[in-house]
Write the structure tokens for this entry.
Amino acid sequence: MKSKFERINRLPPYIFGQINSLKMKLRSEGRDIIDFGMGNPDMPTPLHIRQKLKEVIDKPGVGRYSVSKGINGLRKAQAKYYKKRFNVDLNPSSEIIVTIGSKEGLANLAQAITSRGDRILCPDPSYPVHPYGFMIAGAKLTPLQTFFNGQFDKNKFLLNIVNNLKKYSSIKVIIVSFPSNPTAQIVDLDFYKELVKIAKKYQVYILSDLAYSEIYFGNNPPPSILEVNGAKSIAVEFTTLSKTYAMAGWRIGFAVGNKTLIEALTKIKSYVDYGAFTPVQVAATAALNESQKCVEEIRETYKKRRDVLIESFERAGWDKIPEPEASMFVWAPLPKKYKKMGSMKFAKNLMINADVAVAPGLAFGKGGEGFVRIGLVENTQSIRQAAKNIKRYFNT
Ligand SMILES: Cc1ncc(COP(=O)(O)O)c(C=O)c1O
């Protein structure tokens, strides 16, 4: 039996696996773990979207194979969203594709465009499919330092990109994702202008993952890289309904922008899938086209949780926690007292001693060490209970 699986061997041990096993063990012992570990929205999908699904599911023919690149109406709805939200014009036939969640789109695009010897630049820490989608596809990875003395520094980050582009002619793709999972870091349009200029000069593609486009708490909604003039010549952007409409399990996302990349993704997807279930795509169309009041409510829920979490965790003895301006995560430095422990041991100890699960920063790359990611996926009552448990643990 030839059981050398080269692609699998490129993947490091899954750090979340250790945390999940511990969680399962403690739960099986009857422990009530408050789980901030995953970015898995807990609120219900808005009623009108669920109703649309119910309405469509009884129509004849909907159980047949759907359209791999997504139904027309859904691609048109996404074009309308980009026009209204970012003032970006997109051709629904050639510049938009529906994906089975943005994660699938990212992984399949990596498969579609990676050649032997290609290298990618990707922030460290990052959402795992960003580097590993490409590593599975055979690319080499250069992690981009994100924090400089504990702070994101836009100029140093961009300089680092330029220095790498000068060093490696094999770089094909730069990945960016702001608001960031896990760090909640945001950027402004000027950042994208600089980045597009660099990418054009060195003739590399940019993949921007804008999963948290609508989960923001201030007065400045996150921009799209496609707002930059001419960005479409080098950039593709991913968005998702998972967070905006609490539809993570429905698996609907999009890739939009550069025609060559959209065509490559369309081609590979035509070989490997038939698209999401048609009623789900129709309901997703309703999500984008109908009232956006539900999005405001979802945003408000995350904001309230953010405020309660920071206030109560700091009162429990956690040193200063930076307030995220967007995303559904709090990126918290380890309390000074536990700094030396490292994020993995701290996350395990927190679960064992306080019944609180968080994601260790190390799980998102070496650059995430020293932090934990706390998902805003528990209600305010559970957040307050978690703070009480944490206080008890910190005081022992
Ligand atoms: C940055 C980022 N991209 C993509 C995803 C996955 O989104 P989807 O559900 O559309 O696959 C997530 C989910 O947590 C994410 O944080």
